[in-house]
Amino acid sequence: MLPLILDLIGRRVVIFGGGPVGARKAAFFQGECQVLVASRSFGKEVRSLDVERVKVDITTASDQDLMGLMEGAFLIIAAVQDPLLNNRILTLSRELGIHCNSASGDPGDVIIPSVWKGKSHTVAVTTFGRSPAMARYIREKVALDADAIDRMIDLQGRAREALKAGEPSQERRSAVLWEIVRDEAAWKALGQGMDAAWEYIEGRYLHG
Predict the structure, then answer these.
(1) Domain residue ranges in the chain
(2) Closest alpha carbon to 112 in 77, 87, 143, 66
(3) CATH 3.40.50.720 given to domain 12-112
(4) What is the pLDDT of residues 119-167, one digit of tens each?
């Protein structure tokens, strides 16, 4: 499997299952996608979300009814408690050529990672289902350094533009930016503010 960052704004995501797992999946996509949650009942977590809800008994619904709910979707999420029902949803999504994430049962072709979003960066982590706790741990470790990472990204952007103006070699520009990231003094200067960091970068890397 390959990790990708996709723009899903306006895309349709259909989630089967109105319990806690379905709620977590719906919350993940809420605000970015058109989210529909299909279930016989909905927990309070789902009811609190700004998503479309359709009552359906997945156990007794026909394949045609379920496929009708899937129509136009970019992604199907099978999040019911019964792995066999999830497998049925997965099979139907494959028949329609729609990507599917399955919470249990046979694996789908999409993994929903543990995500941390900083101001200027996004980190997604997965252990491929082997250790959700470890995925959360890695995400939280990154979050501890989020402010410093965002400041370094801003500093890198400024340095990159300055290097483009004065350094014709792309290879050399890349090497300098990598040196800055590895420079402990640059990170220390960032702790004193962007102006102090930029003064250090200019003297050390741009006018040497």
Answers:
(1) 12-112, 146-206
(2) 77
(3) yes
(4) 999 999 999 888 989 999 999 999 999 999 999 999 999 999 999 998 8
